[in-house]
Specification:
326 residues; Peroxisomal Thiolase, Chain A, domain 1; binds coenzyme A
């Protein structure tokens, strides 16, 4: 059976680390609160001159090197981001230029934290339609630029980073098995960046009112994230004809350790089959899952033939899950 398969994956995180202790000097918070309520100990913050396209380029370069593929061989570049270099052009276009992937067409996916899973699913459709295609899916975020560093309820949660995957057709049973993608636009204002778009174009007023930063109804988001990520795992298992016992490793979006623990307990998964690295990076939005998968491969936590599930939730609301045989 032909499937779309991730043949390599890379990631990049900026050098600068911002610890909870550093944050104690910036807002009224403390390491104990952040650790207990979120599981985050530190996050990486991009340099002022380091853009999402630069981080995405680094992650993509690593994935290309691992797969031994030339940039000219890429047909399609998809980039999940909500913090791109510009509103237009797409960050995917900038990554195309930086890589010299001159035969590719490129566009961004605005699905917030679900951007990587949505991107993999779109890539799969291109590959199933034409099994000669090579697709690069990047997720890159500089959330530090859209964070209100005076708001303790949000600034402790996020970080910067990027991940990138290369997909090709496979006929050895490995690859994407099933996906389940959902959106509820009625809840668009639960996590949003109110200023800078057509609704509230940039003005002195929008700057004064801090409308160029992420706002969030944290408690409501928490409840929805738990419910919808559980729903996604259950649905994708049914679509894959798998039981939870078939799954070797699940990669949940890294937004809050308590969200991950609630899901794990509800679906009754052992701790060692749920990948967690939120302590080191915080929530890097679309980039959390590719960074996690890349790290899991580096530390031999997944191997060929393993059954894995990726599951996400984000602004929109967008959510979903993907099952793969590695
Ligand atoms: N440090 C110390 N205290 C803080 C704080 C911080 N960084 N942020 C909030 N608080 C305070 C609140 O002001 C509140 O104080 P009060 O009781 O005196 O009013 C108290 O802590 C509890 O706040 P609450 O918002 O109820 O905390 P919580 O346990 O719900 O945790 C979040 C807040 C944001 C960590 C949690 O709601 C969350 O993770 N939500 C989901 C966010 C998310 O994942 N978003 C992205 C999805 S992709």
């Amino acid at each position: 059976m032909n499937r779309a398969k991730i043949i390599s994956i890379g990631h990049y995180t900026p050098k600068k680390i911002l610890t909870n202790t550093d944050l104690e000097k910036m807002v009224d918070t403390n390491d104990e609160w952040i650790t207990q309520r979120t599981g985050i100990k530190e996050r990486h913050i991009a340099r002022i001159d380091e853009m999402p396209s630069d981080m995405g380029y680094e992650a993509a370069k690593e994935a290309l090197e691992k797969a031994n593929i030339n940039p000219e061989d890429i047909d399609i570049i998809l980039c999940g981001t909500v913090s791109g270099d510009y509103i237009t052009p797409a960050t995917a276009c900038l990554i195309q230029a930086k890589l010299g992937a001159k035969n590719a067409f490129a566009f961004d996916i605005s699905a917030a934290c679900s951007g990587f899973i949505y991107g993999l699913s779109i890539a799969e459709k291109f590959i199933l339609a034409d099994n000669t295609k090579t697709v690069l899916v990047v997720a890159t975020e500089k959330i530090s630029n859209i964070t209100n560093w005076e708001d303790r309820a949000t600034c402790v949660l996020f970080g910067d980073g990027a991940g990138a995957a290369i997909l090709k057709s496979s006929n050895d049973n490995s690859g994407i098995v099933a996906s389940y993608l959902k959106t509820d636009g009625d809840l668009y204002d639960y996590i949003m960046l109110p200023g800078g778009g057509s609704k509230n174009p940039a003005s002195l007023e929008t700057v004064k009112n801090k409308q160029h930063y992420l706002t969030m109804k944290g408690n409501e988001v928490f409840k929805y994230a738990v419910t919808k990520m559980i729903e996604s795992v259950e649905k994708v298992l049914v679509h894959s004809n798998w039981t939870k016992d078939d799954v070797n490793m699940i990669f949940p979006h890294q937004a809050n350790i308590r969200i991950i623990d609630s899901i794990r307990k509800k679906i009754n998964f052992d701790k060692d089959r749920v990948f967690i690295n939120i302590n080191k990076y915080g929530n890097t939005s679309a980039a959390t899952i590719p960074i996690a998968v890349s790290e899991a491969l580096q530390s031999n936590k997944i191997k060929a033939g393993d059954k894995i599930v990726l599951v996400s939730f984000g602004s929109g609301f967008t959510w979903g899950a993907l099952s793969l045989i590695w």
